[in-house]
Design brief:
Number of domains: 1
Strand order of the largest sheet: 3-2-1-4-5-6-7-8
Structural class: alpha/beta
Largest sheet: 8 strands, mixed
Order of helices and strands: EHEHEHEHEHEHHHEEH
Number of helices: 9
Shape: globular
CATH architecture: 3-Layer(aba) Sandwich
């Protein structure tokens, strides 16, 4: 078992943190914790009103800006209108096992939101990023598989859970490849990842019919406050790039933050590079070399 880690939010005092999907669930808790530690926190949310409602419950310097990760034009507008440097970007927002849907740009909704939207956002903010990118993955990545010839679920029968696990595997492959490129160019920016274990978030209580595994997960789920701890550790503790943090308890479902395990597919560097190339082509967004140097 890996040693447990504790968040160090005081290290973000006076810094700017952008958190996607910060109006509910784990993102809201992370945002509140960092705002309480005197960070300037930007809630990047699809619903501005829900973001304002969340911000009203938080102390400190909190700003609300609209961002729809399922619309690349919204990602571009958000990045263009955001002022000043960003110290920490937390790619937290996500959708989980909805019926087949498409983003504004025609991508399968889960892959388009959970991976491609964050890929494009990170690319656009990277020239102003000073410290780190934290991307939230999931235990579900372990059963995930990237199908490069059908990332958009246009040739296969749609399976919501399989599409979700593909998107969460993509989050980890993106983190590793981003860190590889940052390291190769001498950048001091770091890419890290985290997962909440099994937490009682809105993703698990979305009002739809639940599978047997999901019902079991809800019975064993830990409180949102504990599920937020790995993300807080990844955002605040001085850790090497490509570190992956999750609960350190039973099957990584619960417990204090610790180093997390990746699946074999999540360590596939060739697939990470292939996914990166496909993501650039799909989003028409590239990571310019001059954005990857200090």
């Amino acid at each position: 078992m890996s040693p447990t880690l504790r968040p160090a939010p005081s290290r973000l005092a006076g810094r700017t943190v952008v958190i996607t999907g910060a109006n509910s669930g784990i993102g809201r808790i992370v945002a509140r914790s960092l705002a309480a530690a005197d960070a300037h926190v930007v809630l990047a949310v699809r619903s501005v009103q829900k973001g304002r409602d969340a911000a009203a419950t938080m102390p400190g310097d909190v700003e609300v800006r609209r961002l729809d990760l399922a619309d690349l034009s919204s990602v571009r507008t958000f990045a263009e209108e955001l002022d000043g440097p960003v110290d920490v970007l937390i790619n937290n927002a996500g959708v989980m096992v909805p019926p087949l849907g498409r983003t504004a740009d025609g991508f399968e909704l889960q892959f388009g939101t959970n991976h491609l939207g964050h890929f494009a956002l990170t690319a656009r903010l990277l020239p102003r990023l000073r410290d780190r990118v934290v991307t939230i993955s999931s235990l579900g990545h372990r059963s995930g598989r990237i199908v490069p010839e059908d990332l958009g679920w246009e040739r296969r029968r749609y399976r919501p859970l399989t599409a979700y696990t593909q998107s969460k595997l993509a989050n980890l492959l993106f983190t590793s490849e981003l860190q590889r490129r940052l390291t190769a160019t001498g950048s001091t920016v770091r890419a890290l990842a985290a997962h909440p274990g099994v937490s009682a978030t809105q993703l698990l209580s979305r009002g739809q019919r639940l599978t047997r595994i999901e019902r079991l997960s809800m019975r064993l789920a830990q409180p949102e406050e504990m599920g937020a701890q790995p993300a807080l550790v990844a955002a605040t503790v001085d850790l090497p790039g490509d570190t992956y943090i999750g609960p350190g308890g039973f099957l990584e479902w619960q417990g204090a933050p610790a180093l997390a395990r990746r699946s074999r597919r999540a360590r596939d560097t060739a697939m990470a590079r292939r996914l990166w190339t496909a993501s650039e082509q799909l989003t028409a967004v590239s990571f310019p070399r001059d954005a990857l140097v200090p």
